[in-house]
């Protein structure tokens, strides 16, 4: 099993602090700004809960979902994310939905994309808001009832929380 | 508000073609504040749907994590010439619609 899956949201707090520390004054500024914005980012528990709500408790498996995003984003205002799922996309064996989740955002789920039979490839791209350096997850619901998950870590150069006002 | 769509003019039958869409929309998350600290009222795009010959290709149920000027790209399997309809709805009740034609050879 790859490292990425072993700790869904496990080290969120540490990662957030590390990310914020990357910009010198960021730590001091970040906390009040985040509070001002209506509460701190999601915790690992929030992410776990969001995943459980989607899968109805079924544990998502790994390896069939690839998430692409720049490893380093200048700001968190519009980070491009592409989720690609391995699937033949036939009538019997297909991806029915792709969810995008952000572990350190106040609301982890960014969106759900339901794919109809005319969808030619199990791939969706969008741009997301990121509150801090964090992992972005792609969660795929398959027609056979299984769930698959993948992720990528994105660093944010300017602590995204400091940039709240440009969101 | 306006939408930008990229659809290939021609596609071969059975081919998967990439569709790109962008709606000019502030997509206010309700997290943003002005200089006085007042929150810009939340108003996000909650739904994006693309249909092809009347059948749904993709439907996005969207939350606050999607950026301003929501951008989506996806893949369509070209079956026959027809009309693509793109539709966005925001939580203020506004509806934006855009159409494109795909010729399948």
Describe the structure.
The complex is a heterodimer of chains A (167) and B (105). Chain A has 167 residues and is α+β, with helices and mostly antiparallel strands. Chain A has one domain: Immunoglobulin-like (Sandwich), CATH 2.60.40. Chain A is built from 4 helices and 9 strands. The radius of gyration of chain A is 16 Å and the shape is globular. Chain B has one domain: Sandwich (Immunoglobulin-like). In chain B, β7 and β8 (95-104) form a beta hairpin. Chain B has 105 residues and is an all-beta fold. Chain B has a 5-stranded mixed β-sheet with strand order 2-8-7-4-5, with no helix packed on it. Chains A and B meet through β6 and β7 of A and β5 and β6 of B.
Describe the secondary-structure layout.
The complex is a heterodimer of chains A (about 170) and B (about 100).
Chain A: H1 3-6, H2 12-22, H3 26-36, H4 44-55, E1 61-62, E2 65-68, E3 72-73, E4 79-85, E5 95-102, E6 109-115, E7 123-128, E8 134-142, E9 147-156
Parallel strand pairs in A: 1-9, 3-9
Antiparallel strand pairs in A: 2-4, 4-7, 5-6, 5-8, 8-9
Chain B: E1 3-6, E2 10-11, E3 16-23, E4 45-52, E5 55-62, E6 71-77, E7 82-90, E8 95-104
Parallel strand pairs in B: 2-8
Antiparallel strand pairs in B: 1-3, 3-6, 4-5, 4-7, 7-8
């Amino acid at each position: 099993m790859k490292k990425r899956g072993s700790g869904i949201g496990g080290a969120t707090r540490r990662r957030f602090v590390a990310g914020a520390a990357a910009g010198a004054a960021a730590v001091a500024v970040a906390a009040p700004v985040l509070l001002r914005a209506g509460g701190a980012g999601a915790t690992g528990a929030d992410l776990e809960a969001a995943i459980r709500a989607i899968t109805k408790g079924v544990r998502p498996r790994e390896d069939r979902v690839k998430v692409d995003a720049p490893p380093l984003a200048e700001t968190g205002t519009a980070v491009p994310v592409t989720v690609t799922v391995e699937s033949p996309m036939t009538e019997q064996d297909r991806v029915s939905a792709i969810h995008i989740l952000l572990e350190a955002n106040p609301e982890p789920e960014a969106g759900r994309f339901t794919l109809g039979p005319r969808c030619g490839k199990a791939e969706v791209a969008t741009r997301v808001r990121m509150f801090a350096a964090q992992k972005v997850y792609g969660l795929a619901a398959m027609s056979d009832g299984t769930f698959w998950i993948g992720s990528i870590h994105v660093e944010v150069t300017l602590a995204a929380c400091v940039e709240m006002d440009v969101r | 508000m306006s939408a930008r769509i990229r659809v290939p003019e021609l596609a071969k039958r059975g081919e998967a073609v990439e569709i790109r869409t962008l709606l000019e929309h502030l997509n206010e998350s309700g997290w943003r504040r002005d200089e006085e600290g007042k929150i810009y009222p939340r108003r996000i795009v909650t739904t994006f749907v693309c249909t092809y010959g009347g059948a749904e290709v993709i439907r996005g149920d969207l939350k606050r994590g999607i950026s301003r000027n929501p951008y989506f790209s996806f893949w369509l399997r070209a079956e026959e010439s027809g009309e693509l309809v793109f539709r966005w709805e925001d939580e203020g009740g506004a509806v934006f619609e855009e159409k494109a034609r795909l010729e399948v050879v």
